[in-house]
């Protein structure tokens, strides 16, 4: 019943790890950031095709980048 949450978690994790590697996040900041994205995108449940997956992935990446840049 996770729907899009796998895509959300994957995208958020990839961006957060990038933030860690660039020095913008601490190691613990990775999980904090991913969790924040997960909570904000909990509405993303239903997927109807690849277009939906790509849109959710893109939205999760943007949100993660915004969270990192506002720390």
Overview of the structural elements:
There is one protein chain. This protein is an all-alpha fold and about 70 residues long. The protein is built from 3 helices and no strands. The chain has helices spanning about 5-20, 25-40, 50-70. Helix 1 packs antiparallel against helix 2 (about 25-40), helix 1 packs parallel to helix 3 (about 50-70) and helix 2 crosses helix 3 (about 50-70). The longest helix has 20 residues, at about 50-70. The chain starts with a helix and ends with a helix. The relative contact order is 0.26.
What's a concise summary of this model?
With 71 residues, the protein is an all-alpha fold. The protein has helices spanning 5-21, 27-40, 50-69.
């Amino acid at each position: 019943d996770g729907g899009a949450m796998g895509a959300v978690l994957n995208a958020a994790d990839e961006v957060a790890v990038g933030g860690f590697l660039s020095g913008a996040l601490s190691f613990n900041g990775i999980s904090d950031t991913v969790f924040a994205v997960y909570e904000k995108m909990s509405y993303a449940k239903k997927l109807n095709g690849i277009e939906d997956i790509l849109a959710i992935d893109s939205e999760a990446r943007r949100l993660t980048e915004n969270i990192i840049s506002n720390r």
